[in-house]
Amino acid sequence: MSPVCPLLLLILAQLAVAAQPEPVTTILERVATAAKQVGALRVTFQQEKHLAILDEPLITTGSIEIDRVNGLLRWQYDRGPVLILAAGRVKRWGADGKAESAGDDPALQAMAGQMKALTSGDWKPLQELFTMEVGHGPDHLLLRPRGVGMTAYIEYVEIAFRTDGSPNTLVLAAPGGDRTTYTFAMPDPAWKPDPSRFAGP
Amino acid sequence: MVKSSAIVAAIIALVALAVTGVARLDSDLTGMIPAADVPLAREAHFFSGMGAIRVLMVEAEVTSPSADPRTTLQSIVTRLAPLGAHPARDNGIEGVAHTMQVVAAHLPEFLTAEDLAETEAGMSAEALSQRLKDLRERLQRPDDWLTATAARQDVLSLTARVLQHFSVGPVGARPDGAFFTMPDGQHMVLRLDVDFPPDDVGRGQPLLAALKQEASIAASHGVHLRWAGSYRHYVENADTIQSDLMATIPLEVLLVGLVIWTLVRSWRAMLVIHLPVVGSVVGAMAGACVWSLVTGRPVPMAMIGATAGILGIAVDYGTHAVVGAQEGRRCVKQLLLGFLTTGAAFICLFFSLVPALQCLGAMVVTGLGTALLSTMLVPGGRIPPPRREPVWNRIGDSTNRLLQRQRRSCLLIAAIMTLATLPGLWRLHFESDIKTFDGSTAQAWDDLEVIIQRWGTPDSSTFIVAHGDSPDAALAAAAATRARLGLGPGLLERLVPDLAEQARRREAWNVFWTRHADFPAKFAEACRSNGLRPEAFAPSLAAYHVVTQSRDPITPESWTGSPISAALTPLLHRDGTGWIAASPLPLSGQAALDLMERLPGDSPGWIANRTDLGKRIVSAVQHDLTSLIPMIVAAVVIVMTLAVRAWRPAVAMLLPPALALVWAFGIQGWMGLPLTPFSLLAVTFVLGIGIDSAVFLNAGSWSMSAILVAWLTTLLGTATLLLANHPVVWSLGVSLSIGMTAAFVAALLVTPALSRPAASPAPPA
Fold first, then answer.
1. Burial level of B494, CB count in 10 A (0-12/13-18/19+)?
2. Farthest-apart Cα atoms in chain B, separation
3. pLDDT for residue B765
4. Res B103: pLDDT
5. Do B139 and A54 touch (CB under 8 A)?
6. Of B49, B90, B114, which is closest to residue B508 (Cα–Cα)?
7. What tens digit of pLDDT does each residue of B585-600 get?
């Protein structure tokens, strides 16, 4: 056998390994490690809802402020409602600044898991509800509901991370063509959290 | 030597049986039910199959304006989860979604005629247009992620209409995640489902201890915690009994040991006295095992308490045997007579209709029989007499002289005591409040009352129960019983309507959609007028149409995999060859009892109530014991008469325990102490020990010191129970102390006065 053949086989093998998608655990660990480097951040986003029952998309902008040290998150829509995650619970204030009960809203509590993951940088707890696989890109995490119940309302959630571990886009797809896409700007790591921002509007 | 070997071999065989008996212990309530009481046995069997209520309610009350009760309860959820307690409503989004899917798949079968009538109000063109306008407005909320998807699948929200009937929670309270909040905002409650049964005290104790710690922390944050549930009562009862035992046993052992030591003054003798004690425990458990094997029933756990009484008599056997051995006498005849009379009394319990009492009879007979056999192992010549004459001999001699001199006076005193205590018998009454048998703290009952008043009972303790050859037959019978009582469908009937009801609902559904055949056209128009795409609602329109009667019905299996399944299983379960449907009623206390009274006799189902069951069991046991008393008295009289074959000594030995009964119950009557099954059982032991004293007193003055010590040790043992905090242990202590003293005093006053002076038994050859 020519000495070139083993070399060729070795190169082919390495190429094959390199072509394999990054395992989910690697993505999760990298995101968690990157999150630990940043104690607080602010990021703006654009939300685009394409609903099967509407002709036009619904586009909104907003910002997310995260205090990782204290496990706090503020999710604010521009000229819209404010959601605050504190002590594991989500509280909601309407556009008029009036507090609303979010305790029994299953849709909101479904998002609470993703908000917690955003806050901590630890996406592993979502594995209780979702299976996880690598999505349409090497840094894409694809979540599909584990239970038959949720499949009626969520088809998949796909998150694309940047190399620094911050989310770039998040897509929430429902059966029948409903799709909500979040596009996140680069986070501002120099932002300093103000405790009053997590107490209410 | 051969005889001793045979006795040792017999005791070893009994040990094996005793071990088997311990393995057959069971806390099942059915062991306390009289066999002839079919309705009571049926009810006990039902609750036994349902299992214990595994619920713990925790209420947080705001005591400071800045307090946050939700944070407190959230902290409790986190703290108690590793200890086996989880929020009952914590089914998560998947649980809710799965339940919605099951309902959506069976809308024609779930929706009642009333539901359809309410839906009809929203079917006009205007109403549809308004509904879609509201939907469109809702969609403008940027944080609404699921409404559009849900609306496409069921735009008329028929699934939600069904689900509103499934929500269970306190009346007037608002669900808030795992919690419920009162409109006043000052009270929240957390309902916890616990992984283990309440009688698993080993796991319950750390759970309750953690709650107590959380209560201290919460108090410092302006939140007052209350909690209620069977777990608290089991743990507090166990704690009370444990602390009672810790407080009484060391004192009892010390005092009894000291008294016996003053009599025998020898470590060897002290040890030998305990041979019958060990034998009695082994024999009692062996007897329980044999009874269990013969009847095929488990050994009732509660009967283990009876070993304390057996131990008391066995110590007396040991004392008499050892003192006799020290003096070079054998007292087998007296011990045998004592055993025969006590045994005759307890053999009568074999005729009891209550399995637990039959078991008690077997335990006492074999326990005391083994204790008697064990006394034969006492080595006659090997226990040296005490070097110094025991003080008890001098006391015994003085007492003997006094009793012999004052025979008439003794009988007169006995007569006066009888006359004085007799009226007390008419003041006796049976305890009807089973709460008085509970050793929980007053705080536990106060908290339970507050929680029940504010939030309702922790879980249903009242059910309409119906039997059937199939799940559907049982369900139909339960539904028919509810109808007889004028009650609408309950949770069970809503979760799994019987097949006939499902057929009726399908028919109503078809009539409804036939009447609204123009719905798709009207709906499309309403969509267009609101700028919505009608074709996107295809899943809704596919569901809203006439169905065939042959489609799959709702069955218990329809709920498999959903959180409803776990709640449904105890409500509809297999029992032997048939099925039981248990339809919960949100009633407790008197309201439940009133409903039981209203139930027509020809109803296909019946009503089961936990509180009522407890009361009826206590009443049945009391009634059974009371009815056996004449038989017990007759048996003791016959055995004694046959054994001594002379009326005078027979009367001398039988009259004291009879008088002791009158005195003991009379004194209890004067003291206002109610009768309980425990005090009735105590009486049987009083009879046993009282007869022993009378038998030995009848034998002559030689055994007076042993009689005195036997009585004193027993009295000390029972009197220490007066230090107990648990009401049952304390009342046993009172009954036994009064009874033992009455039996001893009666024997002293009556037996020597009636019996002729007997010669001391001859020392053995």
1. middle
2. 119
3. 37
4. 92
5. yes
6. B114
7. 877 667 777 888 888 8
Rounded to whole angstroms, how far apart are CA atoms A155 and B714? 76
In this complex, the residue of A53, A60, A150 whose CB is nearest that of residue B152 is A53
- Name the B residues in 72-111 with CB < 8 Å from any A CB: 74, 92-101, 104
Q: What is the DSSP string of B117-141?
A: HHHHTT-SHHHHHHHHHHHHHHHT-
Contact by Cβ (8 Å): A79, A91 = no
Which residues of chain B lie closer than 8 angstroms to A89, CB-CB?
Answer: 70, 74, 177
Q: Rounded distance, CA B82 to CA B65, Å?
A: 31
| Mean pLDDT across chain B | 84
Rounded to two decimals, the ipTM of the complex is 0.83
DSSP B217-253: HHHHTTEEEEEESHHHHHHHHHHHHHHHHHHHHHHHH
3-state helix, strand, coil split of chain A in percent (to 5) is 30, 35, 35
- Phi then psi for B86, rounded to 5 degrees? -135, 145
The secondary structure of residue B586, as a DSSP letter, is S
Backbone CA torsion sign across B101, B106, B107, B112: negative
How distant is the Cα of B44 from the closest Cα of chain A, in angstroms? 38
All residue ranges of chain A with pLDDT < 70 are 1-22, 101-111
List CB contacts (< 8 A) between B105 and chain A.
Answer: none
Which chain B residues have a beta carbon less than 8 Å from that of A53? 139, 148, 151-152, 527, 532-533, 536-537
Distance from CA of B153 to the nearest CA of A (A): 9
Provide the number of CB pairs (under 8 Å) joining chain A to chain B: 124
Instruction: Pick from B145, B535, B541, B558 the residue to mutate for testing the A interface (most A CBs within 10 Å).
Output: B145
- At B167 the pLDDT is 64
- In order, the DSSP letters of A35-79 are HHH-SEEEEEEEEEEE-TT-SS-EEEEEEEEEETTTTEEEEEETT
Interatomic CA distance for residues A114 and A143, integer angstroms = 11
Cα of B735 to nearest chain A Cα, Å: 56
Structure tokens at B458: 């922790």
Report pLDDT digits (tens) over A109-162. Answer: 666 777 778 788 888 878 878 889 888 887 888 999 888 888 888 899 999 988
Q: Are strands A130-134 and A72-77 parallel, antiparallel or unpaired?
A: unpaired
CB atoms A106 and B95 under 8 Å? no
Please give the residue that has the higher pLDDT: either B307 or B547.
Answer: B547
Give the closest-approach CA distance of A41 to chain B in angstroms.
Answer: 21
pTM equals 0.67
> What CA–CA distance (Å, rounded) separates B114 from B164?
13
For chain A, strand residue ranges (E) read: 40-50, 58-67, 72-77, 82-86, 89-93, 99-100, 130-134, 140-145, 156-161, 167-173, 179-184
B185 has a chain A CB within 8 A of its CB: no
CA distance A65 to chain B (A): 16
Chain A residues with beta carbon closer than 8 angstroms to that of B133: none
Between CA B136 and CA B114 the distance in angstroms is 28
* Tokens read off for B64: 């400071």
Comparing B9-18, B222-231, B314-323, the range with the smallest average pLDDT is B9-18
- In percent, the amount of chain B with pLDDT more than 70 equals 91
| CA B744, chain centre distance (Å) | 35
Give the amino acid at B338.
G
The answer to whether B731 and B676 have CB atoms below 8 angstroms apart is yes
The average pLDDT across B357-384 equals 82
Which DSSP string do the residues of B443-500 spell out, in sequence order? HHHHHHHHHHHHH--SS--EEEEEEESSHHHHHHHHHHHHHHTT----HHHHHS--HH
* Dist CA B245 CA B733 (whole Å): 12
B504-513 residue pLDDT tens: 999 999 999 9
Q: Could you say which of A52, A89, A106 has the minimum Cβ distance to residue B533?
A: A52
Identity of residue A26: T
